[in-house]
Amino acid sequence: KLFFTDYGNAAKVERCDMDGMNRTWIVDSKIEQPTALALDLINKYVYWLDIYLETVEVVDYQGRRRQTITKGRQIRHLCGLAVFENYLYTINTDNLSILQINRYNGTDVQALARLDNAKEIRVYQKRTQAAVRSHACEADPYGMPGGCSHICLLSSSYKARTCRCRTGFILGSDGRSCK
């Protein structure tokens, strides 16, 4: 799945399949300006920052079990969001510090370090990477991903895929080759 935020006419947190199909709103009320998003891949939770409402909130992948992690004026100065183990990590653009927030007790906030001009944060650690099983976009014997001549996108499951073409090409009637 692909998760994303939108704060256009109607602010929301959404998800869809990797090929853009099955677009679903998972949060569409009491949300104004969601600017950063992080996923807990193990427990299937979506965290986001709302800088207008000054909150950090969480829901499950279906949009249920919504909770506010922390709330207050300091949220207005945050950008980027990552989750690892018991903590959320974000950047405070007011003082350029990396913040660690206990995701179960939002009052436990610590500044870890200063970084100049940081706008995003990511955690790279083996335990944050989901195990990869064989999938529909693996290279075929000719080296084509999922048998697609240009682009292979996972669809509704790891067993399904959709072929797409680069700009200037159209998908052939076989659903795999681009012309």
TrEMBL record:
Segments annotated as LDL-receptor class B repeats: 1-43
Single GO biological process annotation from the record: canonical Wnt signaling pathway
Record-linked InterPro entries: 6-blade_b-propeller_TolB-like, Cueball_EGF_LRP_Nidogen, LDLR_classB_rpt
GO molecular function, one term: Wnt-protein binding
SUPFAM superfamilies per the UniProt record, alphabetical: EGF/Laminin (SSF57196), YWTD domain (SSF63825)
Signal peptide: none
Entry-linked Pfam families: FXa_inhibition, Ldl_recept_b
GO cellular component, one term: plasma membrane
PANTHER family membership: EGF-LIKE DOMAIN-CONTAINING PROTEIN, VITELLOGENIN RECEPTOR-LIKE PROTEIN-RELATED-RELATED
Name of protein: LRP1B protein
Lineage, highest ranks first: Eukaryota, Metazoa, Chordata, Craniata, Vertebrata
Gene name as annotated: Lrp1b_1
